[in-house]
Amino acid sequence: VQLQASGGGLVQPGGSLRLSCVASGFTLDAYDIGWFRQAPGKKREGVSCITSIGGNTYYTDSVKGRFTISVDNAKSAIDLEMSSVKPEDTAVYYCYAKMGPTEFWGKGTLVTVSS
After folding, report:
1. 84 contact partners, CB below 8 Å, separation of at least 6
2. What is the rounded CA–CA span in Å between residue 17 and residue 24?
3. Model confidence over 58-96: pLDDT tens digits?
4. Neighbouring residues of 35: CB distance < 8 A, sequence distance ≥ 6
5. What CA–CA distance (Å, rounded) separates 95 from 114?
6. pLDDT of 23-34, one tens digit each?
7. In terms of Cα–Cα distance, which of 81, 76, 107, 75 is closest to 93?
8. What values do phi and psi take at 71, rounded to 5?
């Protein structure tokens, strides 16, 4: 049972990047899923999530209008489309899936926004 994140890398300010997180050993449809990030020297913060009930999406204010979260239950994948990226988006991004007391976390993928 695991989540495997990928897609991080170096991107220029104003550019785009797509992160993907694939679940293995369980299905996502019953879980609240999303992404956190942790920038150097800062606390981990929630970026975006999708609720299992209703499929409602939420975004932290700093990424609203720039990031889009989606889930493909057929592929057991959680994607985060990042556009108009800024240097302050530089962080390790972690995907997660939560259902009650059960949580799974991916190992993280580094996104660096720099020219």
Report:
1. 14, 16, 66
2. 23
3. 999 999 999 999 998 888 999 999 999 999 999 999 999
4. 19, 21, 46, 47, 48, 49, 69, 78, 80, 93, 94, 95, 96
5. 23
6. 998 888 889 999
7. 107
8. -130, 140
